[in-house]
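Hey,
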Amino acid sequence: GPCYCDQACARTLDCCHDYAQACPVIPCVVSQWSAWSGCAEPCKTTYRVRMRHIIQEPRNGGEACPALEERAGCVEYWTRRGTECQQFLVPALITTGGFGKARKKRAAADGNERAGYCVEFQLVAITPGCLHSHHSYTRWMHYLREGHTVCVECQHPALHYPSQHCYGDGTGSQKNQLLHWQAVGNHRCKGTWRRIRQLDTCFCPSVHSFLFI
């Protein structure tokens, strides 16, 4: 009689003699991933999506289809209308405070010296990559310690006008909100901190002193 491809015969042990040829195992086949979508919502830590579809359904005990949707973390810093999101969503780019001395000299020479400000943060989390910085210009990252209070200076040209702020300074953030920072010169050195206060007139100490980029 005809050979039925219902897989039950494999359990009842009464498959027809040509079952393997008449009912070959066919696995699921899916398409390539689509391009990533935009963020689900602007100005929020949310997700983006990519999709794929089934080209061939599995048959005769073939391998099942994998996931057809994948999500990844996402943040967009611009609204749908093209305006900038609030400052606290933007991760801070920082470098050692020693860089500020050369920056001030250049600004003074150009006649562009403008009053800045400082922001104090408490370091909450630091990635291990900060300890793996072996270049001379990244040694300052070794002194980052969780729980320490750091002082970050905002000065020209990082001081943006007309907002009068440096990107990532935490303006508009809620109390005790975790904010993100990234060390310039080592993409593996990053972490989170909490904004403590802003000092409109400041001079950051030589230790634990940094600069917005």
